[in-house]
Automatic annotation (TrEMBL):
Pfam families: T2SSE. Belongs to the GSP E family. Residues 83-360 form the Bacterial type II secretion system protein E domain. It comes from the Bacteria. InterPro entries: P-loop_NTPase, T2SS/T4SS_dom, T4SS_GSP_E_ATPase. It comes from Actinocorallia aurantiaca. This is CpaF family protein.
Length: 438
């Protein structure tokens, strides 16, 4: 059944229920079943059992409903008892990448890069709070006025952010971000996120142990690209991944995933990304992959790239490839180790080799906007050479972004590193002459 049809059935069922609604039938269901018996069943068996009992209850005590309305009501009751209520059909729809709940009456979803409002709502603010409590309880946390912000993760991997009054003036706000599917570089190329020559070049960069930074704004697909590029790390290497919420799905055998931990309700026990980066250096990694740097851990990551962990990958929020370099410098300066800007710049020049910048167009489509190589070294000012850029055409009336991927010659030093590692430079790029011409 399509999501639209499911939501419409749910709405009609709610309108036809003459008694206390879904909450009433959920309470009757809990009174009817044996909780000890239910605890011994698998999740699939629990759902089947509750659907059967709910069907008997509604048939015996409920209003006259059509077959579709009755099935929708049973599903809503069981979703309330086992899952996340009105959010369950949204989580079951794989085309939805983000769910945004702005209070009980306003629910938005992102599908194919476009945000749209849906008709379904929570019956009350209390029901929304119950759903939030159920989510945060999964990670042994709580949300209340003394702790009004929470980050959590569903058992299926979705990232969850909650913020409630008094910080939120619009009521409880719940944001669920879908756990991204692991796309291969071939799938991304076929989908138009890059062209074949660029895919071959990026694969060569990874195999040649060049340090890559993936930059872009929120929702541009940085984690998806990071996951795709990590597939080119040789299988015999020891890889340590570090993330706030574990999303990477590496296929290599020797992978050690690490995940940060927030403070508990007493404000203790926090383990930050920086703590994990420092600890990773003692774990003899060949490469370190950090889901995102956003603070003082940036300096530790840069130092790791400078001290024998070539081929590491990291993502950072930035508006362009050039902005990514300066943002790394700013983040590194947030470390408790106070270094002059010039010293941080020198470390970045020596550590970062390639910046892959991602963009999301007005049509919601995500693609590589630029691939740039760091051509400055040591004490020189930051300097980037564009290896590839997406040149877009004027937006057409259908709001679809069209354009071409332009290739440029690689600096000689970069090409030499690829050739020394046994890699080749795709013919459409070429190599700069010794005079630096293009």
């Amino acid at each position: 059944m399509a999501l639209k049809d499911r939501l419409e059935d749910d709405r009609q069922a709610d309108e036809r229920v003459s008694r206390a609604g879904v909450a009433h039938w959920r309470q009757r269901l809990l009174e009817e079943i044996n909780l000890d018996e239910l605890a011994s069943l698998t999740m699939a068996q629990r759902r089947a059992r509750l659907e059967k009992v709910s069907g008997h209850l509604i048939a015996r005590e409920g209003p006259v409903l059509s077959a579709g309305e009755r099935a929708a009501l049973i599903r809503r009751v069981v979703d309330e008892a086992l899952g996340l209520g009105v959010l369950e059909p949204l989580l079951a729809d794989e085309s939805i990448t983000e769910i945004m709940v702005n209070g009980p009456d306003h629910i938005f979803v992102e599908r194919a890069g476009q945000v749209q409002r849906i008709d379904t709502t929570f019956t009350s603010v209390d029901q929304l709070y119950q759903t939030i409590d159920r989510i945060v309880a999964l990670v042994n946390r709580r949300v209340d006025e003394s702790s009004p912000m929470v980050d959590a993760r569903l058992p299926t991997g979705e990232r969850v952010n909650v913020i409630i009054p008094p910080l939120s003036l619009a009521g409880p706000i719940l944001t669920i971000r879908r756990f991204p599917r692991a796309y291969t570089i071939e799938e991304l190329t076929e989908g138009g996120a890059m062209d074949t020559a660029t895919a071959l070049l990026l694969a060569s960069f990874v195999r040649a142990r060049m340090n890559l930074v993936i930059s872009g704004g929120t929702g541009t697909g940085k984690t998806t690209m990071l996951n795709a590029l990590s597939a080119f790390v040789p299988g015999h290497e020891r890889i340590v991944t570090i993330e706030d919420s574990a999303e990477l799905q590496l296929k290599q055998e020797h992978v050690i995933p690490l995940e940060s931990r927030p403070a508990n309700i007493e404000g203790k026990g926090q383990i930050t990304i920086r703590d994990l980066v420092r600890n990773a250096l003692r774990m003899r990694p060949d490469r370190i992959i950090v889901g995102e740097v956003r603070g003082g851990e940036t300096l530790d990551m840069i130092q790791a790239m400078n001290t024998g962990h070539d081929g590491s990958l990291v993502t950072v929020h930035a508006n362009s490839a050039e902005d990514a370099v300066y943002r790394l410098q700013t983040l590194a300066s947030m470390s408790d180790v106070k270094l002059p800007y010039e010293a941080i710049r020198d470390q970045i020049n020596n550590a970062i080799d390639v910046i892959v910048h991602l963009v999301r167009g007005p049509d919601g489509f995500r693609r590589i906007g630029e691939v740039a190589v760091v051509s400055a070294r040591r004490t020189e000012k930051f300097a980037l050479k564009t290896a590839m850029e997406f040149e877009s055409e004027p937006i057409s009336p259908d709001r679809v972004v069209r354009g071409v991927f332009r290739h440029h010659r690689l600096p000689g030093l970069v090409a030499d590193r690829l050739l020394a590692a046994g890699e080749s430079v795709p013919g459409s790029f070429g190599i700069e002459s010794s005079g630096g011409g293009s």
